[in-house]
Amino acid sequence: MVFAATLDGPSVPWVELIPILSLLAGTCFLLLVGSLVPTWPRRGYAWVTGISTTVAIVASAVQWNNLYYNKGKTFFADAIAIDRFSVLASITICLAVIFGALMTSAYLTRMNADGPELYALLLTAAIGGLVMVSANELIVLFLGLETLSLSLYLLAASNRDREQSQESGLKYFILGGFSSAFFLYGVALIFGSTGSTKISGIGEALSGNISIINADAMLLVGIGMLLVGLGFKVSAAPFHVWTPDVYEGAPTPVTAFMASAGKVAAFAALIRILLVGLEQRVDDWRPVVWALAILTVFTGSILAVVQTNVKRMLAYSSISHAGFILVGVEAAGHMGSDGIATSMNYLAIYTVLVMGSFAIVLALSGNTDGETNLSDFKGLAKRRPALALAFTVLLFAQAGVPLTAGFVAKFAVIKSSVEANSYVLAIAAMVAAVIGAYLYLRIAVSMWLEEPASDSEISVDPAVVIVIAVSVVATLIVGFFPELLLQATRLARFAPR
Amino acid sequence: MLNLVWLIPALPLAGFLLILLFGRVLGEPRAGILATAMTASSFVVVVGVYLDLLSRTAEERHHVVTLFSWLPVGSLHVDMALLADPLSITMALFVTGIGSLIHLYAIGYMHGDPKFSKFFLYLNLFVFSMLMLVLGENLLVTFLGWEGVGACSYFLISFWHTRDSAATAGKKAFVTNRVGDWGMMVAMFLAFSAVGTLSYEGINSAAAGGKIAAVTATGIAMMLFVGACGKSAQLPLYIWLPDAMEGPTPVSALIHAATMVTSGVFLLTRMSPVLHASYPWVGDVIATVGALTALFAATIAVAQTDIKKVLAYSTVSQLGFMFLAIGSGAYVAAIFHMVTHAFFKALLFLGSGSVIHGMHHEQDMRNMGALRKLMPITGFTFIIGWLAIAGIPPFAGFWSKDEVLLYAFANNRLLWLIGVITALLTAYYMTRQVIMVFFGEARWHDHAEENGAHGDHAPHESPWTMVAPLVVLAGLSIVGGALQLPFSKSTKFLEHWLEPVIHDSEVSISGTWAYSNKWLLLVIAILIAVSGVVASIAVYAKGKFKIIEPKILADAWRYDSAVSAIVGGPGRAAFGGVAAFDAKVVDGAVNGIGTEVRAASGLLRKVQSGLVRSYAFVIGLGAVVLLAWFLLRGIL
Amino acid sequence: MSFVLSAVEPTSTWYLVLSAVLFGIGTIGVMVRRNPLIMFMCIELMLNAVNLSFVALSSQIANIDGQVAVFFVLVVAAAEVVVGLGIIVSIMRRRTTLTVDDMSGLKG
Amino acid sequence: MELFVFVVAAAMVLVGALGVVTRSNPVHAAMSLVLTLFGIAVMFVAHNAHFLAAVQVIVYAGAIVVLFLFVIMLLGVDRAEDLSVEPITNQRPLAAIIGVGISAIVIAAIVSSRAGLGASGEGVNETTLESPDANIRQLARVIFSDNVFAFEITSVLLLVAVIGTVVMARKTKSVGTRK
Amino acid sequence: MHASFPILSALILLPILGAVLITIVSNKHLELVKLIAMLFSVGVGGMSVWLLASFRSHDSGFQFVSQHDWVTSWGISWHLGVDGVSLFLVVLTGILFPLVILGVDPHHDHKRYLAWLLLLEAGVMGSFLSLDLFLFFIFFEIVLVPMYFLIGGWGYDKRVYAATKFFLYTMLGSAFMLVGIIATAVIARRDIGYLTFDLVTLAEQASFATNTGRWLFVSFAIAFAVKVPIFPLHTWLPDAHTQAPTGGSVILAGVLLKMGTYGFLRFGLYLFPAAAVWAKPVLLTLAVIGIVYGAIAATMQTDLKRLVAYSSVAHLGFIVLGIFAVTSQSLTGSVMQMVNHGISTGALFLLVGMIYERRHTRQIAELRGIQSVAPIFSAAFMIVMLSSIGVPGLNGFAGEFLILIGSFQSARWWTIVAATGVILAALYLLWAYQRVFHGEPDEANSTFAEMTLREGALIMVFIGLIGFTGVYPKPMLERIEPSVDKLVEHVVSHSDYKVPTTPNIVVEPHGEKAGE
Lengths: 497, 636, 108, 179, 516
What we know:
The structure holds five protein chains of five kinds. By secondary structure, chain A is mainly α. Chain A has helices at 14-36, 44-66, 84-110, 116-134, 138-157, 163-194, 199-207, 216-233, 242-249, 252-277, 282-304, 310-332, 339-364, 380-383, 385-399, 405-419, 423-448, 462-480, 483-490, and strands spanning 73-75, 80-82. Helices cover 73% and strands 1% of the residues of chain A. Chain A has a two-stranded antiparallel sheet. The model of chain A has no long low-confidence stretch (mean pLDDT 89). Chain C has helices at residues 2-7, 12-32, 36-60, 65-94. In chain C, helix 2 (12-32) runs antiparallel to helix 3 (36-60) and helix 3 runs antiparallel to helix 4 (65-94). The longest helix of chain C is centred in the last third of the chain and has 30 residues, at 65-94. The termini of chain D are far apart. In chain D, helix 1 (2-22) runs antiparallel to helix 2 and helix 2 runs antiparallel to helix 3 (50-75). At the C-D interface, helix 1, helix 2, helix 3 and helix 4 of C face helix 1, helix 2, helix 3, helix 4 and helix 5 of D.
């Protein structure tokens, strides 16, 4: 027995981990103190969540600033990479957490049930997301994915007084497990064919820097499996089937969080895998992404046409948004395209839009969190003009009407797609966007042009007001002056291998 | 004086504006007096200009007054300019002259009409447009007047617009005229692309200078002729004129007899160099159409019972004569006949108006007769007009008609024959009309009793305002021939006067058989006229022969009804078809896409069954397809 | 007999094939079973299939990382089971029957 | 010898798997799952993954399946599920096609590229009588050096599991809130 | 106002400011709201007139240019400018809006109505003024939103259907244009060296390969063809026009449709001359079809407003004809006709709206003999109608004639067919007029109220414009023509197109004598 062989553990870059750590700290604080101290001041949990997330954001901002000098590096033997790409994604996710926390507090107050668990789950989900976006190792990525997903399953099912919530939780759980099995199998096959689970390692293996081993079929099938798993997470058709049900069933704040943070993390992971790990195999996966993109934009917008539940409508619209982001990803597959930047740009803007929209849905969803039918929005302009106006702005932004952030996002994606000469995709996406616009028009019609069904007083929680106000203002500011955001996203790049 | 040309149209325009603003204030009869005064003073100005021109040598009888630049774009320069030369002034003379007479007449005729002032509003506007038409320096200014008179005739025909027949007639007139306008516009386009200008001087000089290819000139000429057909009621576009009788009688006299309908003749005369430059068959076409129209209308006139309809068809027929003249190259003759025709036809219309007025708006000649005793002046003047149109020497109509026939003979004897027959018919049906209205036994008493409407008071002579113009016109109809007497070069005043504009004369046909035997033709013409009169008297007054008035003639050969049947039947159906096509097919396709999307949505929706296991299946299916693709790329 | 058996060496390809079959069975199970617990078990089957390939591959390409991966997968599986069963239990509290087919209130 | 082991283990695995899919009674299904898991464990051993084999038996057979059974009993849902009917039309054949298809594709991939799989790492240590802990040592080194981050993240995962149980298990209104 | 004053930006921003003010003013102070709307719209109108006054005629370039960086990373700049082509459209917009705001009463929700109108004005102004593709697209697209709400909120029975159809149809068109715009900039980057959406830079410096240019042109053309609308993409127009409130219809016909034709001029001919020349035959044919087809369809309409809407299809056919028969006269005529159609059809819609106010029906069959009870009203209608028919001396004729005589030079046979549209125009309008205004009024129509003072004043403005433009178009022409000529030269120099030259025969006095 040789005890001399001491283990030289890797040096831990604590500073770089501050975002994750602060979130983790927040979680633990909530759980421990929450269980020790029975009664908390109102919104106390929300405050804790907000603070820890703010710390994370600040830390990430500092990282962003430092990355001005170096292009970022990898830690834990290339297990994670801290670069502008990951930092940008992290900030977006953290924003989603703050919005989510605000909405959750409003939601819980209405349910008059308060407690640390949901906030804690938000935070753990965020941790999972952060891990995903900065993971440079497929196993770590998988762990992050599972952390995020498990938290989301629980959040979705968390409203136990509402049947749909539970149903959506179960559906999400079963299908999620199903898809992550595919993802994992993909990891296995890729590991087998390239001998590495490190994303950058895979890239090197494929670019032939180290011992080249050729197992094309296995590698490609592995890629396919990965795409299935991630496609499920980003709800790309035909792996989107779960999205409408889960979005509709889950508590509204959770839906908002899922739609934003979940998508950002999944897309970030997807982009990193495809462009860092599989850059050499662009010709293999680009056609697939192309097909997925077209399928997704059309599925989302066409299915939305006949919906009657606003939450479900937004679910479908989120699907077509995913399609648009895929358009950006497809463009990123071409040499010298800024597809990555525009996709991230789209994700950031989309996060704000979706948060605002669902915040308004939440404001109207009543005490059961279930009054989200189109009929419940009738004549909103007469009951709460400001609310109606805000929703209109957000909806038209999602439709891509100029002078809103939504237009900037779409324009950017289409631009990179055109620069990549994939005109068909660009035009198809725009056509789908037109079909999708019908859905937003329907909501606008029932808000502005129809008489109110009931004139019961709509009380809007201040927290929700904050979310709506911020998102609307942000939408307009970005719509009028997109330059700042564009500058930022254009800097999003990966750490060198 | 020449620089005051602009005053000529300006005065009626002023009248128009004044009545437009203060018409209601002025009311009856001041509005009428104002309008009449304006036209009359305009006439005075014309006379002044005329004298001024007269005082110049033939070369200087040509004066352009440019008011302002109208449509200057690129190479196109159209000025709002007036041209004073013998032709335009001749036209202006009788337009304003007869115009003012008819204004005066209308004061009496329209007495008591609620829209009295509006009537004179339109009349002045019409006179203005007509003057723009004749005085225009270029085709576009003429076209301005051309459309203006069209619009005014629309207003005036449908003056009593509560009568559906009147409203329809007005619309019909305007739309039919538009067909002609289309021709005139195309002619303008051609002229511009060939010559680069629209001014008469430019085009005519280019044509005369052989700078226009014959084919182009032909195109222009034919298109102008299409336009002329529309305005001057030639076959096949004459149909609107008879219906136009729905308008008040002064209107019929002024617009549909004396002035507007002759503008086609004027235009072709104006552009005569282009006609010369075009292929020779153009003239034949014009002459033939003219001759046929003349005969066609004359035959119809034989069987009409409406006092105004007879005159209307005779107008069409006389216009045919003018085109026959133009086609035969007898521009002077055309103008000559135009002027004389203006005299006696205006006279006849006003006379008939006076009769109608006296008969309390009775227009059917079968309910008249023996009116000469009750309406002596009207009857007397009407008879003079009859003699004039019938072509009995020495009345005006005889001379002009004879000259037309002379040229026709020189040009094409068949057409001459048609002309002669027409002349015969003219004498015949005019005599018939005179007999039915003024002679024979009075058929209006019993008629009056049977409907009892106004049987109590008998027909009466009209007021002086109406009678005076009759007298004046009667005088003109007698002496009008003096303008152009065929005896010697010196007696051909009109030809001499128009020389600067129309540079051809009898010399052009000198040497032909007709020229050398023109006195023979003269005699033939007289015989024809007389025999027509005699025949008619024999039939209608003496009852020697039975009356021949076939239904088909009364129905104007059913041409009009056939046209309306086509327009109202297949035409309308076709239009409806187009509209239906638009709604069903074009718009249907658009909405179809919408429904298709919905259907697709409904279909896709079935996938979202809510069953976890089928979701898993969908995901699995997607996975299989996706993996298959990758596998194939890997293995192959 | 024994030498026959010892003659043929089962290469790790055999194991990989087996794991593929196992994975397929798992997927089929998820699609045909209505009892969420059993569907969940099928998912576990799929995960095990993956584990098997990891191990087989790691010995095939002489790389220990495969085993490491399996180790983490085991942890994930454990956590997943806890969460999943938690959800199922909380649902079953209110319901008596236990099939996913009648949990199709959300559709369209 | 290996062949014999493989055949037996494969038999266990497949029989178990089929059992899970076909047994109508949840308890039986769980039991067949155990069978599969043991089979897998055996195969681990065959690949010198002794530590994993152990963990497999302990965690899966020992914890997970027991948990399953516990839930089944707790909820009293051990009634047999009627497998004779399939509410969704054509679900079974289609499912079969999908499953077979996936397997077939993966197998094809594996077979076609089996030759390409060359050694890439520094090898997996044989566990012999001399060094019974070779596998454990090697695993430990890798886990606690390169994969320490992943290892730490698993803690978060477990944390989520803990919260999950709380969220799902507690009574709804039991939370201390001010009304 | 000093020349350095950024008047163009002000033209766009003032209405927006007004709209914002209106939104923040509470609903209770209705008068205040109306006052604000009036002040801002009239102010903008005044500024546009001032613009007209201080516009240097005989200057082909862009004037009052204001350019500021906006989205530098995409090479997008706030680039405004006005030339002969856009000047009168801007003025028309500036005049039309205050008239509508003052003259037409929406009956309910004045506040929102006025706010949307002002936003609409800003959008329209922007699309006529912007010299940057991106900027243009933004305004071109943003216009849909207020128009959508105007139709949907204040329209008639089928308003939602019409509004949605309008929105989606137009948006679909511009979807292609967006791709086209981006592609243009991206492809042109090779020639220019940097990414820019600036119209002038692109048009002057970029050169596209034949097929590329054609594809790009098509992508633009689809959007404009929908907007104009060109047959067979026109079916949104009758619905939108008919269902829109009077004010909406006036604006829609007056200025919105012109955005399409203007786009063809500014971004079709100017940006892709070669491709435009290539597409000439197709577009000419479609235009002529539109003229005849629209007229025929109009003849058979039973709804007065719908009839006017179809007449718009025909009239815009003339404009398109003029644009694509690229000659100095036809283009000038088209630009002029854009304004004329805006005036006369706008006035027609106002009058139809007044009829609806009185009788609450637009069905021709239910109207009769109005001329006997309301002569002044009928007279106004008659004048406007004649201008729409194209009677000389009124504005409609001047433009139409220029278009036709210009087009005849380069597209002879198309023009000859198109000219028949003049006949049809007389047919459908006069027929409608006869059915509505002539005849004996039945008891329902015998109480038809005569034109009120306010309405009269409103219509008088239009009639004044109709008369003046018809009689003395020179001032207008001499401002339009230079820019148009420049455009024609641009097309000629960038394509194989040759402008047919009309011979200019020197006329010696009494030429016919000299001729012999």
